[in-house]
Amino acid sequence: MKILHINISDAAISGGGSAVAAFRLHEALLQNNVNSQMLVSYKKSNMDSIITLPPNKNIGDKILSKSDKIIKIILNKLLFVKYKKTISNDFGSFSSQIDSNKKLVKFINEIDPDIVHLHLIRYVSLSIEDIAKINATIVWTLHDMWAFTGGCHLVAEQVPLHSGKRTPPCSGIGVMCDKYAQNCGRCDVLGSKISKDLSFRILQRKKKTFAKIKSMSIIGVSKWMSDCAKKSAVFSDKKVVCLPNPINSDVFKPIDKFQSRMLWNLPKDKKLILFGAMAATSTPHKGYNLLIETLNKIASENIEFVVFGSDEPKNPPNLPHKIHYLGHLNDDVSLVSLYSACDVMVVPSKREAFGQTASESLSCGTPAVAFGIGGLPDIIDHKINGYLAQPFDTLDLAEGIDWVLNSENYDELSKNARRKVVSTFDYDVVAKKYINLYEETLRNGRKI
Length: 448
What we know:
Layout: E1 2-9, H1 12-31, E2 35-42, E3 50-51, H2 59-79, H3 102-111, E4 115-118, H4 128-131, E5 137-142, H5 198-210, E6 216-220, H6 223-231, E7 239-242, H7 257-264, E8 271-276, H8 288-295, E9 303-308, E10 323-325, H9 332-341, E11 344-347, H10 356-363, E12 368-371, H11 376-379, E13 386-389, H12 394-405, H13 410-424, H14 427-444
Parallel strand pairs: 1-2, 1-4, 2-3, 4-5, 5-6, 6-7, 8-9, 8-11, 9-10, 11-12, 12-13
């Protein structure tokens, strides 16, 4: 069985969390003796199993390639000219994916894999129509919602409450958007009042194109994501399952807290609250603004805050406690030591398809606190290995942090955190589930 993963990159620095997740799955499959390769736009590792599209060999091809890129950029911008809301580029919150690449499709088909496993193709020059021209069986892991919407990457948040009540899937802050379940149109992101606008046309392209693919399985990285995919007009007739992002629990494991603090020059006598993400302080949906509100409401004393994924902002917030800004971390060893150094991880995200920092923290035995949205309820079990706050209630989030820091059963929370990851997200556990899905999809050999 030969698997070819398609993703922007094999490293977080150029591909975000989806690149980490795709690379980890690839690595987990290799460890389980699966013939797995990754085809990426930007290669960072030295692994032979990770490949890129061969460069153009002659000047003529290079000139044509540059001309194609310029034309595509112009076409992408023209798509948005008539809409009220300006989108700075076609790869932000909304993508049309009109960038056809015959060379890439030909290269994929020449490799001749049994399964082409798509991940986040936002920055990969592969149009919607190109996907149907791939000869292999398609498996697609949804790291965001773009595959089944009219162009949006994350349209809204699920809001499950830890009281046991549940609101309808994909309800968001303010307006509830589930137009992808029918035909899209009148898109709020575009500021459109037209029923057959760009979002409508993109959704129709997807419905028409994906209907041609005889064998296709869809994976949501969380229950929330798979539920949204199932209700979508694009994937309602496809096989949709939920499989989490894997984590190497042999790497992400608890190490001595005080030694870890010495490595980072962090105080030994403080309770440390950790927050981190790629562009942690500048990415709106990561909830930095909500975090600042939260930190002003924490009742616990003798605490300090630690932020990774961002340098100190030009105008740092005025908080009653010290903040340590550690910048970007580019290796797992640094992450493990930092998770182990801190007492609680806070994930104040407004939108989160999975919640990779939460699973990493738990794997290192550090409880996590988050809003109960997206994939985070799959990771955090309320008051068992962390705390799920009412969505976007910063007072409840602060109370959750206080609850963890002052818990009489903190050691048990830490043990439960580690157990959850080893039993649910470990490489071997997730890889075996993917292998079973690959085998089932190949056996069926039909539209599923």
